[in-house]
Design a protein that fits this description.
The protein is mainly α and 224 residues long. It has 8 helices and no strands.
Length: 224
């Protein structure tokens, strides 16, 4: 009886060890596959978001028709098209369950932004400082989760930067409220879009270029 218990305990420990080893292998496989183009998604979505944001800033300060705010919805459309026009480099590493999990994280985060952008377009400046901060926070959380799962310090750092800077919208709004009545003009309110674009630059574009540079350097060293 005692021998059976010991054998059962050993089997459980072996199953736990094997499960942890399998998870570690999947994570490492995902990391190796992502190393081929780990900076590409950050650059595609970062540049797309920044360019569309700056375009909307210009639409606002030049007095364009409010319907131009619908161009915010171009971000997922352009990002999706660019992902297919510039696909990831083919990797010999197979896709794993970790890849599926990362796909679920980003698809869920992206879908959550659709009603957020809709509110921005419908209500405009009165809601924008709260919602732009929420968009930054959602994308920062997705970036951080990705970094923690694949153990990428650059991804993780970019996500934490986004989380931290998402508070800047509330701080900017608080600063506006301290100004004398009549001092807050339309252009000051539109500066929130510039803050939004700057955060995405720091959270995605800069880390993306760092990762691409490292990937290219490692590829050159590998061929030498």
């Amino acid at each position: 009886m005692e021998t059976q218990k010991n054998n059962t305990r050993e089997e459980r420990e072996l199953n736990v060890t094997e499960s942890l080893a399998l998870i570690s292998r999947m994570i490492e496989t995902t990391r190796q596959r992502l190393n081929h183009d780990i900076g590409r998604p950050l650059l595609i979505w970062g540049y797309t978001t920044v360019i569309v944001s700056l375009a909307n800033y210009l639409f606002n300060i030049t007095g364009c028709h409010p319907e131009w705010s619908l161009t915010w919805f171009l971000i997922p459309v352009i990002g999706y098209l660019l992902n297919h026009l510039f696909p990831a480099k083919k990797s010999t590493e197979p896709r794993t369950e970790i890849d599926r999990i990362l796909g679920v994280v980003w698809s869920t985060a992206s879908l959550s932004l659709i009603p957020t952008f809709a509110i921005v377009c419908l209500h405009g400046l009165s809601y924008r400082h709260n919602l732009l901060g929420l968009i930054v926070l959602v994308m920062a959380i997705a970036t951080t989760i990705t970094g923690r799962i694949v153990r990428s310090k650059i991804y993780t750092f970019g996500g934490y930067v986004g989380m931290l800077l998402s508070v800047s919208f509330a701080l900017y709004d608080h600063w506006l409220q301290q100004l004398p009545k009549g001092a807050v003009d339309y252009k000051l309110l539109c500066n929130e879009i510039l803050i939004f674009a700057a955060i995405f630059t720091l959270m995605m574009i800069v880390p993306g270029h760092i990762l691409v540079y490292r990937s290219n350097r490692q590829a050159k060293q590998h061929h030498v």
